[in-house]
Amino acid sequence: MRLTPALLILSTLPLAACLKAEEPAPTGAGDFAAYCSGCHGAGGKGDGPMAATLGKPPADLTRLAGKDGKIDMARTMSKIYGASASHRGDLMPEFGPLLETDKTVLYDSGDGIPTPTPLRLVQVAEYLQTLQAR
Ligand code: HEC
Fold first, then answer.
1. 66, 60 in Cβ contact below 8 A?
2. How far apart are the CA of 102 and the centre of ligand 1, in A?
């Protein structure tokens, strides 16, 4: 029975595939709904159900874009990233899962330098781009 170890490994593969399939890949829209819309509102206008309870109104995230219609991705991502770590953490709470670095992408936020960036942070920032008022 020299093949047993290999067979054992093979027999666990379908189970692993099953477990993976149950957890859908996170999307920018899904993460926004889960982590941001409570304060910023489902459409990002700053009118979420928690907005009234905050000392400071949540930013209107549909107006981040400049005249070219594009948001500054580097600035936006550092706002989101910084908010979780800085004293503003009380306003924008822990986004731990968005900042996990086990899944990063090489992302060029406009300076021509691809930088390893947490995938979900990029996704949620790209989702904000789709919310920009035209
Ligand atoms: C607990 C409420 C709350 C949650 C949850 C929250 N925010 Fe905020 N957010 C705020 C408030 C309040 C401000 C304004 C903060 C300030 O000016 O200091 C803000 C500001 C911002 C800004 C800066 C806008 C600008 O132009 O300076 C960005 C970008 C932003 N939020 C994105 C997000 C994203 C993305 C999420 C979800 C991952 C999120 N926020 C979750 C309350 C929240």
1. no
2. 24
